[in-house]
Amino acid sequence: MMKTEQEEKEQQKEEHLCTTIKVARDEDLGEQIGRDIYFDLVDHEKVRSFRIQKQTPFNVFKEEVSRVLGIPVQFQRFWLWAKRQNHTYRPTRPLTKLEENQSVGTLVRKAELNLFLEVELGLHLCPIVPPDKTEEDILLFFKHYDPEKEELCYVGRLFVKCTGSPMDILSSLNEMAGYAPDEEIDLYEEIKFHPGVMCELIEKKFTFRACQLEDGDIICFQKSLSIKSTEQLRYPDVPSFLEYVHNRQVVHFRSLEKPKEDDFCLEMSMLDTYDNVVEKVAQKLGLDDPSKIRLTAHNCYSQRPKPQPIWYCGVNHLSDMLVQFNKSSDILYYKVLDIPLPELQCLKTLKVAFLHATKDEVIIHTIRLPKQSTVGDVLNDLKSKVELSHPNAELRLLEVFYHRIYKIFLANEKIENINDQYWTLRAEEIPEEEKNLGPHDRLIHVYHFTKDTAQNQMQIQNFGEPFFLVIHEGETLAEIKLRIQKKLLVPDEEFAKWKFAFVSLGRPEYLQDCDILFGRFQRRDVYGDWEQYLGLEHSDNAPKRSYAANQNRHTFEKPVKIDN
User: Fold this and answer.
1) How far apart are the first and last CA of the chain?
2) Cβ neighbours around 149 below 10 Å, total
3) Average of pLDDT values for 90-101?
4) Handedness of CA 240, 241, 242, 246 (dihedral sign)
5) Residue ranges with strand state E in 105-247
6) Where does residue 515 rank: exposed (0-12), middle (13-18), buried (19+ CB within 10 A)?
7) Checking phi first, is residue 40 left (phi over 0); if not, alpha (psi -120 to 50) or beta?
8) Is the distance from CB of 364 to CB of 352 less than 8 angstroms?
9) pLDDT of residue 427
10) 235-239, 274-278, 502-506, 541-545: which range is least confident on average?
11) Once rounded to an integer, what is the mean pLDDT over residues 96-115?
């Protein structure tokens, strides 16, 4: 049932009059430290909470705690928590008798009140009245680290005198850890963990005051290790283990060819170097040469791989690979190369679609050459891989975008700056008739198109393979149509349905068979939105095949083969 407006008002009033008190105990610290958390003492979202009216006397709240937790009121001592300047959150002082006589609301600074419940245990682990705390007494919390098991756990707390020294409590700490009373141990103060870990060795002979220890501070301790033992362990001491925990990151690796599927996961450190990362990936894949791994970062905004891969040793640490504009990811993409990445980066790799002169197919070739190579070098390399109509055939390289030809590359043009990510690179034989154009010949663009009426506006949509055609002075459209039909191998019945138009500025001017085209194409080398071309209007019935050489899903209407 939906709440009425009156019920919602009553609920808001009740919310305003109540507060939540979260009570952390030693049991919570023992359960969480080393499992859910490693730094500080407790996650207050996972401790026992009480919903209490703000006007309730705190002593009445203690009776509720006694009822729920089974701890008599006289054995309860509550501590306030405080956030320190170094972003840690620790118990800071016990509540005074005066504060306990006040209402709960007087203690609440924000929406909630976090408390630590100190319960001292006597014989047979029975609760006893907490001892009086003087200004000389310091409440310290202790964590034990086992470097062989790589485990950190909470073992208890002690009151110490600020004028005493850690030497006074060594036997008590050994008892907490289950060691012999005279076991040599090292003590570290857990100071902070944001933005980096600070954990410093404590000089056991100094006083606690000299060590600048205060209520709520945390001491981590472990067995003292020999140099030989230290060398055999991954994280031999508390600081190295906490550094590891602070920086560890489970990374989800995906094959670049299947960017939506996790392939495997690896636990790493955000401080791992580039070499560390690729070595671990290579080891996971059973690859002998880590330099053949190429990584690509994840775009947190598009949820896709970034367009450009990570260069060999192009970043210092794993953190540089995963963080983008203050947003962190846990995904990396990988590709196994056939040659080491440093070598590949000295080369330019281009995907070139070869359009055969007579066969009805397109073959996509991967051309890999030094970056200083020219287009001529690309075409020479391609000649050794393709079937030519005759041994002396000349090739040219075109830039095709959305089924239009935008550029013919010069043979001496450097390939370093050619982009095949967004444009289609197409190679084809130069027909003999195009090699010796005279003043009475013209080379024109011919594109397929359909008309699309969207929002009451007619728009031309190009499709299929664009091509060049030589037309001659005085030649009629009827004569040109015969050559086009022969070139494209279109059946008579289908070809009869085609319309032909002179297209300029995106507007078609339909032609008759008797029209002379030569005079219409006076402009030379015109590309882009202002281009002029002979348009072939007909339905696009051919099945679409995704073109693997680029990312904008252009299509070929001819069979496509990938030849790597």
Assistant:
1) 65
2) 8
3) 95
4) positive
5) 112-118, 120-121, 127-128, 137-146, 151-161, 185-192, 198-201, 218-223
6) middle
7) left
8) yes
9) 92
10) 541-545
11) 90
Listed in order, strand segments (DSSP E) in 25-111 are 48-53, 77-83, 89-94
Task: Establish whether the linkage from the previous residue to 195 is cis, with ω within 30° of 0.
Answer: yes
Buried b (16+ CB within 10 A) or exposed e, 211-250: bebebbbbbbbbbebeeeeeeeeeebbbbbbbbbbbbebe
User: Rounded to the nearest 5 degrees, what angle is found at the Cα of 114, between the Cα atoms of 113 and 115?
Assistant: 120
| Alpha carbons 110 and 454: distance in angstroms, whole number | 57
- pTM of this prediction exceeds 0.85: no
Tokens of 30: 């023992």
Q: What residue has token string 């008190």?
A: 21
Task: Establish how many alpha carbons lie within 13 A of residue 16's alpha carbon, considering only the half-sphere containing its beta carbon.
Answer: 6
DSSP 3-state of 4 = coil
Residue 84 CB neighbour total at 10 angstroms = 13
Among 215, 149, 224, 160, residue whose Cα is nearest residue 188: 224
Q: Please, what is the average pLDDT of the chain?
A: 88
pLDDT at 297 over 90: yes
Write the CA distances from 190 to 157, 183, 234, 239, integer angstroms: 14, 22, 20, 9
- Region of 156 (left: φ > 0; alpha: ψ -120 to 50; beta: rest) is left
The number of residues making up the chain comes to 564
Q: Which residue has the higher pLDDT, 522 or 234?
A: 234
Contacts of 418 (CB under 8 A, 6+ apart): 348, 350, 375, 409, 425
Helix (H, G, I), strand (E, B) or coil at 143: strand
Token digits of residue 291: 């330099």
Q: How far apart are CA 190 and CA 217, in angstroms?
A: 8
Alpha-carbon distances of 531 from 254, 311, 506, rounded to whole Å = 43, 39, 8
H or E segment to which residue 379 belongs: helix 375-383
Q: What is the DSSP string of 278-326?
A: HHHHHHHHT-S-GGGEEEEEEETTTTEE-SSPPPTT-SSBHHHHHEETT
Angle formed at CA 442 by CA 496 and CA 360, multiple of 5 degrees: 50
**Environment class of residue 24 by beta-carbon count within 10 Å: exposed (0-12), middle (13-18) or buried (19+)?**
buried
> Residue 152 in 3-state DSSP?
strand
Burial of 153: CB neighbours in 10 Å, binned 0-12, 13-18, 19+ = middle
H or E, element range at 266 = strand 264-269
Distance CA 354, CA 49 (A): 71
Q: Check whether 275 has a pLDDT greater than 80.
A: yes
Three-state secondary structure readout of 445-478 = EEEEEEEEEECCEEEEEEEEEEEEEEEECCCEHH
